[in-house]
Design brief:
Length: 432
């Protein structure tokens, strides 16, 4: 039951009681309505947090007991309580903010476990993986949609929605199993960052096509700025933080000075990342990576606590967007199945083959790790819908594809990394 339903039920009960007692309710109608409007808005935040957090944790516990990745349960919790199943909760501004914060803290926490030098060492391989993981999914999405008879610009947006990888899901699984220190994990993380930049360029080109003209100079400047920002922070961030942070921290009287400075860096780089043209989560990841070689255990513990609270809202939020529009007619159901299959196969084949020289085992792991689209695919679909170049049914198909690939990835990652022991120097995390 959502907050609006609670409000109207309360109004109905109070009006009924007033009639029975013959009270002059009209005299105080304005103050009554104002009071209930205030109560309705005041309860929205704690009610949303209660329903989503408790449901996510309950299903997480159930799936962990069944030997499955807990995050699958948390995403399914969002589907279950969402508007298309039980209808307890619908996406709203409160949950969107909590979800955005959740994925930022997740990537910041992952960044704390990754050294910039190790990530840059696999930069060449990651770039090849990312490029391959953009070309084939885009081509397959565009081709399938076109052959199905969809308009050309809508088909292009479908291809664009299949390009980017949701690094948050893969990072969560790898962190939970203590595998961030493996070579395959480093390539996946680096490739996902490069993927974000390439996805930005593709989206800019597609958006320009929808407007009728491609502004190549603007696209080149945006891409260059995004690449420059990412490389600069990755290369020099750790060195700068190692020199500056201890000096500033020594002058602070705050009880948690290091945490305050780390949060300032997290939000600052997230803001700069957005202005540079990449996602805020890339800035959050780079902030964590810049602190990785100098962070004390206390900072890690505090970050884990915040992430434990917020990450479930990110995971359940993906499930809340699950749309049954992909199942309304046999035609849309067929297209949804083809798009989902293409989304899985294209990333797995393209990224796996691009990393084959690292060995078959790592190639399989990297291919699987690049499959989830998560919130990234939904953002592209939302842009297409807002620009009125994508129909509601195709939008529903893209949302279905994004949620389904996100659900499929964790069990496949568990299988791909089976038998791989966690790094002895790395704490096994259970964020979310």
């Amino acid at each position: 039951m959502n907050a609006d339903n609670t409000f109207w039920i309360g109004v109905h009960l109070r009006l009924s009681a007033a009639r029975i007692l013959a009270l002059p309710i009209r005299v105080h109608s304005r103050s009554y309505v104002a009071h209930n409007d205030f109560m309705s808005s005041a309860v929205e935040i704690p009610l949303s947090m209660l329903v989503v957090f408790a449901s996510a944790k309950l299903l997480c516990e159930l799936f962990e007991r069944l030997g499955q990745p807990g995050i699958v349960g948390e995403i399914l919790a969002g589907i279950l309580i969402g508007p298309h199943v039980l209808g307890w909760m619908a996406p709203n501004d409160v949950l969107r903010v909590l979800s955005d914060l959740g994925v930022m803290f997740l990537l910041f926490r992952v960044g704390l476990e990754v050294k910039a030098s190790e990530l840059l060492r696999v930069g060449g391989s990651a770039t090849v993986v990312a490029i391959a993981g953009v070309i084939l999914p885009f081509a397959m999405g565009w081709g399938i949609s076109t052959l199905w008879g969809e308009p050309n610009i809508e088909s292009i947006f479908t291809g664009a929605a299949m390009v980017a990888t949701s690094v948050g899901i893969t990072a969560q699984v790898l962190a939970a199993r203590g595998l961030l220190d493996t070579r395959a994990a480093r390539v996946i993380l680096a490739a996902a960052v490069v993927d974000d930049v390439l996805g930005l360029i593709v989206l800019a080109l597609v958006s320009d096509l929808a407007h009728g003209a491609v502004r190549y100079l603007d696209v080149a400047l945006t891409g260059g700025l995004a690449i420059g920002f990412t490389l600069f922070v990755a290369k020099f961030g750790t060195r700068a933080v190692r020199r500056v942070m201890p000096r500033v921290q020594a002058r602070l009287a705050l009880a948690e000075g290091e945490f305050a400075l780390a949060m300032t860096l997290l939000f600052a780089l997230s803001v700069v990342a957005v202005y540079a043209g990449v996602a805020a989560i890339v800035g959050a990841f780079l902030a964590g990576m810049a602190l990785s070689e100098s962070a004390e255990q206390r900072l890690t513990d505090l970050t884990n606590g915040v992430a434990e609270l917020l990450v479930p809202f990110f995971l359940a939020g993906i499930g809340l967007h699950f749309d049954t529009a992909a199942f309304t007619t046999p035609s849309t159901l067929g297209l949804a199945a083809l798009i989902l299959l293409a989304a899985i196969v294209s990333k797995f084949l393209a990224c796996g083959l691009a990393s084959l020289r690292m060995g078959r085992r790592d190639a399989v792991r990297i291919g699987v790790g690049m499959i989830p689209r998560g919130e990234v695919g939904m953002v592209v679909a939302q842009i297409g819908l807002n620009m009125r170049v994508m129909s509601e049914s195709v939008y529903g198909i893209i949302v279905f594809m994004s949620v389904a690939t996100t659900l499929i990835a964790p069990p496949l990652l568990k299988l791909a990394f089976k038998g791989e022991p966690p790094s002895p120097s790395e704490e096994v995390l259970r964020l979310g």
